[in-house]
């Protein structure tokens, strides 16, 4: 806190500046108080500690996220209006029990879909937060589209609204999980709770504005089907664009399979480590299958399988693995097996998070050299011995978090014991 005083006989003025930060070298001005004998004025800044308490990508993300949320709530009014009309609201022939049963089936399908989606994809949401954030909103768009379409097909109404609810259930799970991951990313001063609360209030404000605009739009377009579809599709296109821009501006500092691949390939070619901002511009936000048709750099991570099941090996492969365990991988807690161009990683049952990260980087090096040399195990081991520690040190100095690799859980592990008489793998 700094205090400056201007002492005059007529009207002394005191100016007090409020500063916030985790250390004396990381301070940001949060408020200015100006006091005179007759008045006190306060000029406040952003929420607590802003901007030093959050990452630089926080503000642009919130702007785009609020815009895409606003378009969602406006469209929700249109789709809900169509859904209620299809159920029979306002029709004399409609029964309460019939509408209740249809609404129950819709909600039940969504709940069941959310449980199944969590079971099959829960461990993958944290490692691909940007992709799942985008996919979640695309699935929400699909769900609202089905609600809007449902009145056009009365005979298949229940099926359509259940599919729409199923689509939105994926949105709820993926959006909630990725939101938690992004909140941790934005937090620089252990203020995740404050960031989450501020984001909640921003979303509430966007919801209120969207509801008002949505009711106004629904009233204007009532009975005009062409206007309804034009408004809905226009807002959907804007929503997709805003959501893409929101995800694109994120510069995550955690290591997942794709960011690790980009960083390692660049390091092997130039000896330098890219910054999180540079990597964010090179990431493929959409799923791999959606970008396979584009002209992109080879994705080494698609050629690595982490957590191989050793019972899937045949006898010759098992013998080769035993030989590798006693030679090239004697000092590490993992084994690498190449099968048809895919590098499979066998993790030791006592391996740590650091071992998983090292094994994945080693596998990426091997995937990069598999078509270039016949002695890939020895060459990749030499590369790792010489460059890996330097690589990790440069990553840390560039702001990357190297504690662990964000990846789906490694389910299958192994324990190997080798010696002159009892070479075996259990």
Tell me which CATH architecture of the largest domain applies here: Up-down Bundle
Give the number of DSSP strands.
Answer: 12
**Which percent range fits the helix content?**
55-70%
Topology pattern, helix = H, strand = E: EEEEHHHHHHEHHHEHEEHHEEEE
Rg value: 28 Å
The average pLDDT value, as a whole number, equals 80
CATH topology of the largest domain: Growth Hormone, Chain: A
Instruction: List the strand order in the largest sheet.
Output: 1-2-3-4
Main sheet: strands, sense, barrel: 4 strands, antiparallel
Q: Name the CATH homologous superfamily of the largest domain.
A: MFS general substrate transporter like domains
First-residue to last-residue Cα separation? 63 Å
Poorly predicted regions are 1-8, 293-297, 421-426
CATH class of the largest domain: Mainly Alpha
Form type = flat
Category from helices, strands and their pairing? alpha/beta
Number of domains: 3
| Total DSSP helices | 12
* Beta-strand share of residues: 5-15%
Domain Protein root UVB sensitive/RUS: 48-270
Family: Belongs to the RUS1 family.
Transmembrane segments: 142-166, 204-220
Protein name: Protein root UVB sensitive 3
Q: Can you give me a brief rundown of this structure?
A:
This protein is 55% helix and 14% strand. With 426 residues, the chain is an alpha/beta fold. The chain has 3 domains: 2-44; 58-250, MFS general substrate transporter like domains (Growth Hormone, Chain: A, Up-down Bundle), CATH 1.20.1250; 256-425, no CATH class.
């Amino acid at each position: 806190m700094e205090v400056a005083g201007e002492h005059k006989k007529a009207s002394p003025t005191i100016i007090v500046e409020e500063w916030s930060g985790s250390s004396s070298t990381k301070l940001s001005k949060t408020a200015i108080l100006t006091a005179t004998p007759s008045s006190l004025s306060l000029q406040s800044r952003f929420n607590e500690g802003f901007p030093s308490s959050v990452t630089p990508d926080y503000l642009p993300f919130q702007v785009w996220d609020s815009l895409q949320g606003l378009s969602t709530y406006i469209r929700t009014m249109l789709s809900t209006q169509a859904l209620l009309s299809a159920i029979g609201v306002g029709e004399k022939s409609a029964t309460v029990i019939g509408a209740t049963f249809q609404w129950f089936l819709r909600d039940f399908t969504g709940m069941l879909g959310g449980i199944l989606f969590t079971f099959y994809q829960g461990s993958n949401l944290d490692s691909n937060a940007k992709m799942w954030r985008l996919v979640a909103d695309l699935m929400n768009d699909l769900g609202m589209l089905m609600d809007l379409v449902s009145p056009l097909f009365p005979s298949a109404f229940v099926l359509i609204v259940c599919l729409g609810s199923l689509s939105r259930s994926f949105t709820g799970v993926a959006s909630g999980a990725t939101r938690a991951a992004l909140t941790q990313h934005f937090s620089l001063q252990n203020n995740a709770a404050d960031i989450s609360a501020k984001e909640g209030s921003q979303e509430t404000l966007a919801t209120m504005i969207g509801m008002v605009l949505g009711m106004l739009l629904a009233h204007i377009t009532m009975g005009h089907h062409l206007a309804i579809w034009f408004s809905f599709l226009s807002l959907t296109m804007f929503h997709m664009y805003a959501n893409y821009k929101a995800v694109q501006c994120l510069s995550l500092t955690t290591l997942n399979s794709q960011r690790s691949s980009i960083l390692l390939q660049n390091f092997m070619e130039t000896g330098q480590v890219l910054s999180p901002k540079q990597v964010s511009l090179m990431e493929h936000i959409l799923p791999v299958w959606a970008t396979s048709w584009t002209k992109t750099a080879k994705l080494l991570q698609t050629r690595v399988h982490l957590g191989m099941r050793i019972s899937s090996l045949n006898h010759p492969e098992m013998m080769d693995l035993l030989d590798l365990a006693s030679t090239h991988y004697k000092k590490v807690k993992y084994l690498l097996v190449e099968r048809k161009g895919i590098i499979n990683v066998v993790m030791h049952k006592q391996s740590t998070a650091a071992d998983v990260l090292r094994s994945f980087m080693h596998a990426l090096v091997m995937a990069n050299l598999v078509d270039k040399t016949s002695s890939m195990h020895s060459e990749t081991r030499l590369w790792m011995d010489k460059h890996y520690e330097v690589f990790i040190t440069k990553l840390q100095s560039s702001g990357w978090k190297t504690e662990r690799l964000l990846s789906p859980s490694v389910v299958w592990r192994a324990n190997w014991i080798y010696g002159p008489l009892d070479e075996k793998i259990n």
